[in-house]
């Protein structure tokens, strides 16, 4: 069985790589009319005129025929006449500079995307390993969840600071520092002998990973002109989708055969390689200045985003009415309001929130937040259904999601190229329409829903998402002038991070609360006062007692246990279906809003 799974995963990866290689392979550029004319082999200009006598005319014709009979001298003559040697030399130098610039850009992007890939991969690898870490280190679920919550908190705190750090240190020093911190954190996690050391390693990891993604988007924004950003951001989308695609599958296989520490071991050499490449290839693509450090802004954003993300994370466990959740969310909102006031009133803001005065950027950021809420929430709900209810393994759950992620990775650069031609509105309409329809189909899950049906639905949903994820965000960033690029990417990433956390916590809470409601409804129906239920219960008790060879009293307990398990499974499925209904409504709101997205008019002031 394992050999078939391996071949299946390898084939999916090869399809992604081959299609994207073919899509990005450079075609030979067509010559314009002037260049075509200059490269044609012409005869030397005729020296015939009407004043020539017959003898001179005859001599001139013979000379022309001789010239045409010798191709190379004629070609040299034409090139000498049409294009001076100085012009040839100048164009040659210009071509060499463009080739060198293109090569340098490719190296910079390769180093950046490798760093983003390993950071995202590490996070998706860890999710499947949480139960094994609990058993190995002897910690509870409430304690071990801090490995994800703490990581998310540090990310949320660092993202708003990224714009300041880019202006202060430049993209080269900042990326080298970020990938160094991430690699060191991975090493600490791998060597950890208790939970405290593992948590310290995760915080060090997050301090590097929180910088990498906003930095990557800032570099893309600086290197590519607006008319080429769609295709470029589509390429970045391949990295952002491919890591979560292989993460659960790879983690499920590794956990089944080796220790959870290997999940950190495999990212350390990748981090070291990327660190070497960053020293060799990375260059500053933005101007470095000496901005004033906004300490009140940092304090307000740290407390605000920290408490807000913590509150939403705990809501999934304790419920929205929990005192801890209410207090955390209240404090978070108050400090975020203080942060907004500070950034709008200070002369040198850490994160320039005036980017939201640009209407298309503000609208596309809201749409991206809503899409993140729907997408990440559903990515949590589906594994719960597959593993906890249907009994599929972590590997089988990851394999179900792999084709959808592969499709999204294939379509991401294609949708980026389409964006460069037609803009984000109609791509968003198509993508969100598919997303709404497929999300609604997930509201009909049952105990008999087939594995193949789930895979097809997930592939179609990811196909729709591929038209949305990068194109909507790119349209908004295109409206911003270049000097606000770093602030725009930081603000957009912060909003998306918070929205993803909110969506996950909110949909999980909907699932839990609705499951409890459905459980109460089943209990009110399945009582001994109902003659039909009582008769069926009696028959089932007799059957189980005979099958298990136990007394009637023990058979009754066994029947109660079996029924309780079935009721819990069914009520959980009902809760998941209700959560997908909410996710469908969220996606429909984004579909309505995307009709108002306009083509960004580039502002270069």
Could you characterize the architecture of this molecule?
The chain has three domains: 101-291, Up-down Bundle (Growth Hormone, Chain: A), CATH 1.20.1250; 294-349; 359-605, Growth Hormone, Chain: A. 80% of the residues lie in helices and 0% in strands. The chain has helices spanning 2-24, 33-39, 54-69, 71-82, 85-137, 141-144, 146-158, 162-191, 195-223, 229-257, 262-265, 267-281, 295-318, 323-345, 359-389, 394-422, 425-441, 451-465, 469-479, 485-525, 531-548, 552-594. It is globular and about 80 Å long. The two termini are 60 Å apart.
Identify the notable features of this structure and list them briefly.
605 residues; mainly alpha; Growth Hormone, Chain: A; 3 domains; 22 helices; globular
CATH fold field value of the largest domain: Growth Hormone, Chain: A
Mean pLDDT: 75
What percent of residues adopt helix (DSSP H or I)? over 70%
- Oligomeric status of the shown chains? single chain
> Quick one: biggest sheet?
none
In CATH's first tier, which class of the largest domain applies? Mainly Alpha
Listing every helix as H and every strand as E from the N terminus to the C terminus, the arrangement reads: HHHHHHHHHHHHHHHHHHHHHH
Please report which band the strand proportion falls in: under 5%, 5-15%, 15-25%, 25-35%, 35-45% or over 45%. under 5%
Number of domains: 3
Low-confidence stretches: 1-8, 23-48, 67-82
Instruction: State the separation between the terminal residues, measured CA to CA.
Output: 60 Å
Count up the helices. Answer: 22
CATH superfamily of the largest domain: MFS general substrate transporter like domains
Counted beta strands: 0
* Assigned CATH architecture of the largest domain: Up-down Bundle
Structural category is: mainly alpha
Sum up the overall morphology in one term.
globular
Cα Rg: 31 Å
């Amino acid at each position: 069985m394992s050999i078939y799974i391996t071949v299946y995963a390898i084939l999916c990866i090869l399809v992604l790589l081959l299609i994207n290689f073919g899509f990005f392979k450079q075609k030979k550029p067509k010559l314009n009319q002037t260049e075509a004319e200059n490269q044609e082999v012409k005869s030397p200009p005729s020296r015939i005129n009407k004043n020539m006598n017959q003898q001179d005319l005859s001599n001139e014709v013979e000379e022309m025929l001789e010239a045409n009979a010798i191709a190379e001298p004629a070609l040299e003559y034409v090139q000498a006449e049409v294009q001076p040697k100085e012009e040839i030399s100048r164009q040659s130098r210009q071509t060499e500079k463009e080739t060198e610039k293109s090569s340098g850009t490719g190296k910079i992007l390769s180093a950046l995307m490798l760093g983003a890939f390993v950071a995202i991969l590490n996070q998706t690898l860890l999710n499947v390993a949480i139960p094994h870490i609990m058993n190995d280190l002897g910690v509870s679920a409430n304690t071990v969840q801090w490995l994800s919550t703490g990581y998310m908190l540090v990310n949320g705190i660092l993202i708003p600071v990224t714009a300041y750090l880019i202006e202060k240190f430049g993209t080269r020093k900042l990326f080298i520092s970020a990938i160094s911190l991430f690699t060191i954190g991975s090493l600490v996690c791998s060597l950890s002998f208790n939970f405290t050391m593992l948590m310290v390693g995760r915080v060090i990891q997050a301090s590097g990973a929180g910088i990498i993604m906003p930095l990557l988007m800032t570099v893309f924004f600086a290197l590519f002109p607006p008319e080429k950003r769609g295709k470029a951001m589509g390429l970045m989308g391949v990295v952002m989708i491919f890591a979560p695609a292989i993460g659960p599958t790879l983690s499920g296989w590794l956990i089944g055969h080796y220790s959870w520490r290997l999940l950190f071991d495999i990212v350390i050499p990748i981090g070291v390689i990327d660190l070497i490449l960053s020293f060799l290839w990375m260059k500053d693509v933005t101007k470095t200045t000496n901005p004033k450090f906004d300490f009140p802004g940092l304090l307000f954003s740290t407390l605000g985003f920290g408490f807000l993300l913590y509150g939403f994370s705990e809501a999934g466990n304790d419920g929205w009415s929990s005192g801890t959740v209410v207090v955390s969310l209240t404090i978070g909102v108050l400090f975020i309001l203080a942060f907004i006031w500070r950034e709008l009133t200070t002369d040198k803001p850490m994160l320039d929130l005036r980017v939201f005065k640009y209407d298309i950027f503000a609208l596309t950021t809201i749409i991206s937040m809503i899409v993140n809420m729907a997408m990440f929430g559903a990515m949590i709900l589906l594994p719960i259904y597959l593993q906890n209810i249907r009994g599929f393994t972590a590997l089988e759950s990851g394999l179900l999601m792999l084709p959808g992620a592969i499709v999204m990775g294939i379509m991401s650069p294609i949708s980026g190229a389409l964006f460069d031609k037609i803009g984000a509105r109609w791509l968003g309409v198509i993508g969100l329409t598919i997303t709404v329809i497929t999300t609604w189909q997930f509201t009909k899950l049952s105990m008999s829903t087939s594995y193949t049906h789930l895979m097809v639905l997930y592939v179609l949903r990811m196909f729709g998402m591929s038209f949305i994820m990068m194109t909507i965000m790119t349209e908004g960033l295109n409206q911003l002038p270049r000097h606000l690029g770093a602030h725009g990417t930081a603000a957009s990433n912060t909003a998306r991070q918070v929205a993803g956390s909110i969506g996950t916590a909110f949909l999980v809470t909907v699932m839990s609360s609705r499951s409890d409601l459905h459980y109460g409804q089943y209990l009110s129906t399945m009582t001994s006062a109902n003659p039909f239920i009582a008769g069926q219960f009696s028959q089932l008790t007799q059957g189980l007692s005979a099958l298990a060879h136990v007394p009637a009293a023990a058979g009754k307990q066994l029947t109660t246990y079996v029924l309780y398990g079935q009721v819990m499974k069914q009520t959980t499925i009902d809760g998941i279906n209700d959560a997908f209904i909410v996710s469908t409504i969220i996606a429909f709101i984004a579909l309505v809003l995307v009709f108002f997205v306009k083509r960004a008019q580039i502002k270069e002031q």
